[in-house]
């Protein structure tokens, strides 16, 4: 008889995966309460955020930026501040090349001098004087007129 009672109970009971109407109503009520609490928390957070935000920053509609505006903004942001001087990297680069190449490059010291302009100026003036001297010495012996 006990086996018959189990079968009768099993026949009246809903299948294992189904939920009774009472349980469904209870779950729906819990879900509604939970959603209401979540909405209240979100409203409170928004209210707190709006109270802590300064009043001068009113919500403005977002501006649309085209490609040219974005490029201009990037250029202004990446531009060095006024009065900023770029560091001189030449001496450091030459020194590193000289040490890594064991003196093969920039080992003479003449090309890495602080003021090679004076060296170039002196060399060019000496060459000009030499050319003028040679010209003056050779012209009288040429015997012919200059073209």
Structure commentary:
The chain has five helices and no strands. It has 147 residues and is mainly α. It is rod-shaped and about 130 Å long. The mean pLDDT is 76.
Structure at a glance:
This protein has 147 residues and is mostly helical.
Index terms:
147 residues, mainly alpha, rod-shaped
Topology record:
Layout: H1 2-12, H2 21-52, H3 67-78, H4 90-100, H5 116-142
Estimated share of beta-strand residues? under 5%
Which structural class is indicated by helix and strand composition?
A: mainly alpha
What is the helix content? 55-70%
> Taking all residues together, what is the mean pLDDT?
76
| Principal-axes shape call | rod-shaped
Q: Report the C-alpha radius of gyration, rounded.
A: 46 Å
Order of helices and strands: HHHHH
Unreliable spans: none
Biggest sheet descriptor: none
Distance between the termini: 143 Å
* Number of E-type strands: 0
Tally of contiguous helical segments? 5
**Oligomer state of the chains in this structure:** single chain
């Amino acid at each position: 008889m006990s086996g018959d009672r189990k079968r009768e109970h099993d026949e009246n009971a809903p299948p294992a995966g189904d939920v009774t109407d009472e349980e469904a109503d209870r779950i729906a009520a819990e879900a509604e309460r939970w959603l209401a609490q979540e909405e209240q928390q979100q409203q409170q957070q928004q209210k707190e955020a709006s109270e802590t935000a300064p009043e001068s920053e009113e919500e403005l509609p977002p501006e649309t930026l085209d490609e040219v505006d974005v490029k201009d903004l990037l250029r202004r942001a990446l531009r060095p501040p006024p009065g900023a001087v770029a560091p001189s990297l030449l001496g450091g680069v030459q020194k590193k090349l000289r040490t890594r190449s064991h003196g093969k490059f920039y080992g003479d010291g003449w090309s890495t001098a602080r003021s090679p302009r004076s060296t170039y100026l002196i060399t060019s003036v000496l060459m000009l004087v030499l050319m003028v001297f040679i010209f003056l010495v050779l012209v009288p012996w040429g015997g012919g007129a200059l073209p």
